[in-house]
Amino acid sequence: MRIDIMTLFPDAIDAMMGQSIMGRAQDRGYIKIVAHQIRDYTTNKQMQVDDYPYGGGRGAVMQADPLYRCWEHICQEAGHRVHTVYMSPCGRVFDQQVAKELKANYDHLILVCGHYEGVDQRVLDEIVDEELSIGDYVLTGGELAAMVAIDCIARFIPGVLGSSESAETESFSDGLLEYPQYTRPAEFRGMKVPEVLLNGNHALIERWRRDRAIELTLSRRPELMERVELNKKDIAFIQSIKKDEKAR
User: Which pTM does this prediction carry?
Assistant: First the structure.
């Protein structure tokens, strides 16, 4: 998979995306991430990419022309129009399901990172296929949002995590928050690892993990339970939790 990022800060993208799992994934050819400096596509000596907004108002707005030239260059190199995403607080909320959709539907993406008070709407109308938001808050630029999206999408690319089970068992993969994790030593400051995780009975371990995930989700994010597919054992466990709460 290839992801091109249109940004004013390519060094920041390269520094972060070149580390740890993402860095290894690129070295091994599972994903290619290319950051493009929007200023390289300006036509003035000052390499200006912003100007005052028509109609007045505070701040500045990113100009349409440099963004379009950058986008056009990427698409020309690809030989086709590439699905283009603008990272924006006005977009639909990016979540695990959206990440799966993007990975399943596209092998090449362009992510546009805005700055200042926004981007000239005309270029958005011309090049953007969808807008995505990572949450109900405003950032100083789109780079952090783009890197969040890339990191999440990449986890669904075979080979990136090194284990196909990792992406399937982490938080939100089945609608639940992830169960607690433990490692050596078996006792730390008087706190012991749950005995069930030490007995080697994989069926009991999986049930324990499922129960803890349900318990955690009910406690912290109960609204997520509406989308979870529950089996008979899950329902029985939830009923036992509610019974215990009434008894208190």
Answer: 0.88
